[in-house]
Structures are given as structure tokens and as C-alpha cells.
Amino acid sequence: MDDEYIRLMKEKKKFLIFALSFTFIFYFMLPVALTFFPDMMNRISFIPGVSWAWLYAFLQFVMIWILGWLYHQKAKKMDQMLEQM
Question: Which end of the chain is more exposed for a tag (fewer CB within 10 A), N or C?
Fold first, then answer.
């Protein structure tokens, strides 16, 4: 039982490290892109009237919702595994 618990905690830690690192990298790429590529970020994207900077900023909201949903699914799975223990 202890081995299963340790494995479960390692899996949880691995997922959280991935999710947090992806979130921070995705979040901080907007100011970096605006600093180093201002002309490209101010161009109109494939959506008329919306620049690439605004599109990227909107995608940050979408990314957080998706990561929240993934975490919820993973937490339900881990809760089921803990109940089985």
C-alpha cells in the first residue's frame, strides 16, 4: 500500500510540475514576444481586426480553462485510486 501511495504522489508531482511550468512559460511568453517582436505582435491575425497580441492574450484564458479541466480529471482519477487503497 505504501508503494502505491508513493507512486501516486510521484505521478501527481510530475503532472503538477508539467502544468505549472507550461503555464508560466505560456504566460511569460506574451511580454517577451511584445518586447522582442512588437511589429509582428501588432499585425492583424487571421481574425479580422484582432492583432496577434490580443489573440495570444485571449488564448491564455483558454489555456487556463483547459489546464483546470485537465487537473480536475486527473484529481478525480487520483481520488478513485486513493479510495481503492
Answer: N
Per the CB < 8 A criterion, the answer to whether 43 and 52 are in contact is yes
Count of Cβ atoms closer than 10 Å to residue 70 Cβ: 13
Domains of the chain by residue range? 2-84
Largest CA distance in the chain: 58
pLDDT in tens, 28-56: 999 999 999 999 999 999 999 999 999 99
Instruction: Determine the residue type at 51.
Output: S
| Distance separating the N- and C-terminal Cα atoms of the chain | 7
Give how far Cα 35 sits from Cα of 18, 25, 52, 66, 73, Å.
Answer: 26, 15, 14, 27, 36
Contact 79, 27 (CB under 8 A): no
CA neighbor of 54 nearest in space, from 67, 44, 65: 44
